[in-house]
Amino acid sequence: MEETYVWAVIALLAAATLVSRMSFIAFSAHLRLPPLLRRALAYLAPAILAAIIVDQVFPATAAGPSLDLPRLGAALLALAVAWRTRSTMATIGTGMLALWALQALLR
């Protein structure tokens, strides 16, 4: 009984997510956004990504942000690769490999 309940909840949540996302796409097809809002929305994805990265590079502690050297080094190397190559896959791959290597060396 319990397993069936869990799968039913997962299915209902997936359906609710699908309906909420599809409704935005279906109803916004005829909607014209003002130019200022369109320009602002162009910065949404980079802002969210930056917030995620900063939170991971400088993890919060009770005393405030802390400095995690392996993560900082990997982030700086990934930043250099991103700036040089403009390749998302190269940036992610280099950042992850650098993080694993630096964690193995510094811990």
The biggest sheet, with number of strands, parallel, antiparallel or mixed sense and barrel status, is: 2 strands, antiparallel
Distance between the termini: 46 Å
Shape summary: extended
Strand numbers in spatial order across the main sheet: 1-2
Strand content: under 5%
By secondary-structure content and strand pairing, the structural class works out as mainly alpha
Number of domains: 2
Number of alpha- plus pi-helical segments: 5
Helix content range: over 70%
Overall radius of gyration: 20 Å
**Multimer state:** single chain
Would you count the extended β strands for me?
Answer: 2
Along the chain, the helix and strand elements come as HHHEEHH
The residue-averaged pLDDT reads 89
Ranges with pLDDT <50 over ≥5 residues?
A: none
Question: Care to give the gist of this entry?
Answer:
The chain is mainly α and 107 residues long. Helix content is 78%, strand content 4%. It has helices at residues 2-27, 35-41, 44-57, 69-85, 88-106; strands spanning 60-61, 64-65.
What features would you highlight for this structure?
2 domains; 5 helices; two-stranded antiparallel sheet; mainly alpha; extended; 107 residues
